Amino acid sequence: MGAKITYYWRLYWTVLGMQLRSRMSFRLNFFVMLAGVFLREAATLALMVVLVRKFDGLAGWSTWEIAFLYSFVTLTFRNFSSFVGGIGQIPAFIRTGEMDVYLLTPSDPLFLINCRNTMIWRSFYNIGILAVTIYCAYKAQIAFAPGTVCCLAVLILCGMFILFAVYLIIYAVSIRVVEVSALLKILDSVYKQYMIYPISIYGRIAAWAFTFLLPLGLASYYPSGVLLGRVAGLTLGWGTLVIAAATCLWITAAFLLWRVFIRRYDSTGT
Amino acid sequence: MKQLWDYLKVSCKIELENQLVFRSNFFVSILSVVIRVAMLLALWSALYQGKTQVDGISLATMKCYTVVSIVFELFIACNVEQSVTGKVKDGSISMMLTRPASYPVTLFIEQLANTFQAVVVWVIPYLLVILLCGFARGVQLYLGPWFWASALGAYLLMFFYQLFFGMIAFWTQEISGFLQARDAVMLVFSGSMVPLWFFPEKLFALAQYLPFQAMYSVPLSILIGKITGPDIRSALLVQLGWLLGFWLLSQLCWRKSRRRMIVNGG
User: Fold this and answer.
1) Tell me: the pLDDT tens digits for B165-195?
2) B181 to chain A, minimum CA–CA distance in Å?
3) What local confidence, expressed as pLDDT, does residue A242 receive?
4) How, if at all, do strands B53-54 and B57-58 pair?
5) How far is Cα A90 from Cα A174, in angstroms, rounded to an integer?
6) Which terminus has fewer CB within 10 Å in chain A: N or C?
7) Is B133 within 8 Å of chain A by CB?
């Protein structure tokens, strides 16, 4: 077990180094890209603040509460794309047949694909987004006790893994249906553009669907809601526990589904 | 001219066929626009709760603006930057120079084919949905010549604007970073997500000095009657100014860029 961990640890940094060197071929573009992503997030936040202020809040949530929800969603998504977002290349590999190469290596294909395409260097601006999240939490009057900080850390991790599970399920499905770009587009836009508002505004059916069917609410509205004390019947401690348990369930389901589908992978042209 | 017309016909056919290669994906993409419309309408309804008008704009007008802006976005969607960058990176740009038509003309024809596909597959069905679902009910829409002129201006402006940015790839090879940064600014100042009239005064004034409002905000504001009378003419003049500016810049870049061309192995 120890040898296996050492093997994967070394492999991770080797592949990461290779990727970073290839990215550095276009150094200026690389840094402008980092600044661009940060600018984009800042612009969306500013737009949202302008809008919610103009209308004096949304569904009973104040501007700063909405800003906190937005920064939480952004932080979760950015953590996901920085650390495990490398698996996003799976549909392209399935379409082109490159998946064969990863399945033939002795290492775990998911691990290899992730570190081959991961964007861990982007995590440096996650620090900036974390700072914005903390500032919004302070303005939204969340009391910073040690317990709250621990729950915040756990909920951010849970959000990241919920996203991982949802995306992994879609990538598993892509093994059968090949083209899932439209489905991914829906998922991206729903999470980044609409989960930044309380899901209650979309109606009961949508709220149910975002909780049990496509659990994006578990990575956005519910964690932010329990931190702000806005989810009826759930205290911070219980809320964190429930969300953590749901995350474990979704992760297990996603891995099981991935295993079932990858066994039925038949490459291109076969 | 006949060759260009034939090329346009073939491109339109290919674009339509490409859409239907993966049918399940095609139907899911239709669903994605439906979801987007439904969620945006729910958002505006929640924002307007307990209010009849904000800044002189009613909920009905805002809903109409939202749905029409989505359709308009599909109409002026352009892929020229990615096309140019991809060809510069893999060296296939050299093949484009061997063609009898100039590369920007070829790109424009491909863009027209892309728009044809968008109109057939997206725009017409969504306009029917807007009419059948009554999103335009109770809203005074202006569909006169000034609106069509501004829509055409926005379309051409988007093309030349993207052509100019695509040409930068001849110098930098990779422009995805610049595009990320630029898209962030465009997202705010185009008025496609949040109408510019909801902006604070200073931001609104700043938006007037940028080309993005001429792409989305001007035609949509003319359509829903937010810009009227002599203001239409001045808005169109500003749009024309941006259009000429980006046309000149893209032509200049194209002339200079041919001398900087590097193909793989060369």
Assistant:
1) 888 888 877 777 778 778 878 888 888 778 8
2) 4
3) 95
4) antiparallel
5) 8
6) N
7) no
Q: Which of B177, B188, B198 sits opposite A54 (nearest CB)?
A: B198
Contact A43 B187 (CB under 8 A): yes
B171 touches chain A (CB under 8 A): no
For residue B266, tell me if it sits in a domain: no
Provide the chain B residues 10-69 that lie in CB contact (below 8 A) with chain A: 21-22, 24-26, 28-29, 31-32, 35-36, 38-39, 42-43, 45-49, 51, 54-55
pLDDT digits (tens, 9 = 90+) for A124-180: 778 888 888 999 999 998 888 899 999 999 999 999 999 999 999 999 998 888 888
Higher-confidence residue of A222 and B124: namely A222
User: How buried is residue B57: exposed, middle or buried, by Cβ count under 10 Å (0-12/13-18/19+)?
Assistant: middle
State whether ipTM is beyond 0.90: no
With CA atoms as reference, the chain A residue closest to B30 would be A182
Residue A10: what pLDDT? 82
The domain containing residue B87 runs over which residues?
A: 2-260
Q: Does B203 touch chain A (CB under 8 A)?
A: yes
Q: Phi and psi at residue B58, in whole multiples of 5°?
A: -85, 165
Quick: pLDDT tens for A6-25: 887 887 778 777 777 777 77
Q: Identify whether B92 is part of a domain.
A: yes
Q: Which residues of B touch A30 (CB under 8 A)?
A: 177
Of A33, A42, A55, which has the smallest distance from its Cβ to B54's Cβ?
A55
What are all long-range contacts of B10-14, with beta carbons under 8 Å and residues at least 24 apart? Answer: B11/B109, B11/B110, B11/B112, B11/B113, B12/B112, B12/B113, B12/B116, B12/B117, B14/B113
Question: Could you give the number of structural domains in chain B?
Answer: 1
3-state helix, strand and coil shares in percent for chain A, rounded to the nearest 5: 80, 0, 15
Phi, psi of A58 (to 5 degrees): -140, 120
Q: Do B54 and A42 touch (CB under 8 A)?
A: no
The residue type at A21: R
* Band (A269; pLDDT cuts 50, 70, 90): low
In a domain, B167, yes or no: yes
pLDDT at A204 over 80: yes
